[in-house]
Amino acid sequence: MLSHSVAMAATVALIASPLVATGPNLVSTVVQEAADANPYDGRVADSQDPSVTVGSTLEEQQAAIDGSGGDGADSDTVYFRATVHQCWLRDLDYTVLADVCAEGTEIAYDGLECDEDSYELAGLWAVTNQPGGAQTPPQLIDEGACVTPADLLAAATREFKTMPIDPAEVTLQVERDWAIVNFGVHPRTDDTPQVMATNLLGVPVEIRAVPAEYTWDAGDGTDPVVTDHPGGQWDTDTAIHLPYPAPGTYTVSLTTTWHGQFRITGTPTWTDVPGEATTTDTTYPIEVHDAEVRLVQP
């Protein structure tokens, strides 16, 4: 509930968060309906409706937002997040919900003091649709918080498990469909992480898959070669050599093991996600020939 001192000292303007699940124009819609419907005239609720309750965890609050406002909603209550700004004094006896402060009337709003790896999550509000199209005054359910990576780790872990990851492509240093016994081939791949932008519990985040281990299988029954690097030029220490000791037709396969990380969008630090994922890619068939040395007359 907004304090009486806030109501007496300033008009509270709610600026809709871009993460509001019920639409970016919700606050504007609420304000317009306030002008059209009585007795609600735009005032913010000055008392708590005990029937409007939401759990305190981010998961419970996001579930309330996601499940409200649609045609199939279980309740007439609509939940949304909005950031509180302060405007110069306009009304002494109540606080009014405004879409924006009038020009020249906004007081600087510092918000919560969150560290560089955290996210300032806007407060949670609720309005209840009533018969005839009216709505109850917006009610502050939760004042918001500084969300840390630790708060999002469980959700990030679930998201990484379903993240679409393109297989790391295995290529041959010399692109041809044949090789010589014991000379073999030198495969390699790209080690660029794959990044996915998404939203976890109302917070914008980036989740990335980082290649951690590579298993190179020549396809000829020999033991696979396992490395922590993507291979390199044939004459360097990081070159992968699959020699092929016997002739035949073989296909090289690469299985890449990926580790997950995430960070709140715009913050510098990546946090590890438990678990791993694997992808596999294969080459075209390679004909391995046995070379013979023959003397020829000059």
Describe the structure.
The chain is mostly beta strands. It folds into two domains: 4-147, no CATH class; 152-289, Immunoglobulins (Immunoglobulin-like, Sandwich). 13% of the residues lie in helices and 33% in strands. It contains four helices and 17 strands. The protein has helices at residues 4-9, 26-36, 58-66, 149-161, and strands at residues 11-16, 77-87, 106-107, 119-121, 123-128, 139-142, 145-147, 171-172, 178-180, 187-188, 194-200, 203-217, 225-227, 248-250, 253-264, 271-282, 286-289. Strands 1, 2, 3, 5 and 6 form a five-stranded antiparallel beta sheet that branches. Strands 11, 12, 13, 15 and 16 form a five-stranded antiparallel beta sheet that branches. Strand 12 (203-217) and strand 13 form a beta hairpin. Residues 1-43 and 88-94 have low confidence and may be disordered. It comes from Isoptericola halotolerans. Keywords: Signal.
Structural class: mainly beta
> What is the terminal-to-terminal distance?
100 Å
Portion in beta strands:
25-35%
In the predicted model, the low-confidence regions spanning at least 5 consecutive residues are: 1-43, 88-94
Biggest sheet record: 5 strands, antiparallel
Compute the number of structural domains. Answer: 2
The percent range for helix content is 10-25%
The topology string of helices and strands comes to HEHHEEEEEEHEEEEEEEEEE
Signal peptide: 1-21
Protein name: PKD domain-containing protein
Organism: Isoptericola halotolerans
InterPro entries: Ig-like_fold (IPR013783), PKD_dom (IPR000601), PKD_dom_sf (IPR035986)
